């Protein structure tokens, strides 16, 4: 018999894990393919891509064209193509990139 400071152990509940079934044609959330607008397609191409791949391709474009600010690497300088994606702004912070990108995908 347990004393007041002792507790009886309860048996652990059985947990079962099932693998999620594979979905054809994409997924949900970050893996859902999104179609870029014409302005964004000029930078990354017109194929539907997951949000993560779109961000990666934008960064590849930024690095390929040396568009990070030399003094402050958190800032992105826009060329003519990116200026359309950045809604006419000459420069944005890397933290604004997702916000600006979201306006150009559906």
Description:
- This protein has 106 residues and is an alpha+beta fold.
- It has a domain at 30-102: SWIB/MDM2 domain (MDM2, Orthogonal Bundle), CATH 1.10.245.
- It is 31% helix and 9% strand.
- Strands 1-2 form a two-stranded antiparallel ribbon. Strands 3-4 form a two-stranded antiparallel ribbon.
- The longest helix has 14 residues, at 51-64.
- The model is unreliable at 20-24 (pLDDT under 50).
- This is DNA topoisomerase III.
- Keywords: Isomerase.
- Residues 1-34 are annotated as: Disordered.
- Residues 29-106 form the DM2 domain.
Low-pLDDT regions: 20-24
Q: Tell me, what's the shape?
A: elongated
Largest sheet: 2 strands, antiparallel
* Strand arrangement, major sheet: 1-2
Cα separation of the termini: 64 Å
Strand content: 5-15%
Estimate the mean pLDDT confidence: 85
Q: Provide a count of the helices.
A: 4
Helical residues, percent: 25-40%
Per CATH, what is the topology of one domain? MDM2
CATH superfamily of one domain: SWIB/MDM2 domain
CATH architecture of one domain: Orthogonal Bundle
InterPro entries: SWIB_domain, SWIB_MDM2_dom_sf, SWIB_MDM2_domain
Protein name: DNA topoisomerase III
Pfam family, one: SWIB
GO molecular function: isomerase activity
